[in-house]
Amino acid sequence: MILPVWQISVVVAVGAYLVGCRIEVQRRNRQTWEALLARLSPGWSAAAFREDIAAEPRQLSAMYRDAQVMQEIADYAFRRLRSVDRGMVESLHRDATQARYRALVALVRYAVARPRRPPA
Length: 120
Prior knowledge:
The protein is mainly alpha-helical and 120 residues long. The chain contains 5 helices and no strands.
């Protein structure tokens, strides 16, 4: 029996997705604490995550990326550090998730509210 092309395509796409997920998990497991901290933007500040978001798109994008790194730092601490306060790590992860969400919402609002250029 010959499978239709779309079924083969779905199986290949799901397989590629699962391989990509596995590679990403392996990459995260190999990261060091220093490598995680080095991925934060220069001039990163924890206070930036607590302020109301009224920034430019580049700042919002940097905040989004830094919040992702903060999530990975929390995951690293949770997996590898035995003497860490679990409540503090969960709080860090929750705050980073909220910061990513707020930055993404602000970026979408900026994109929607941006004035459109008239066609040339």
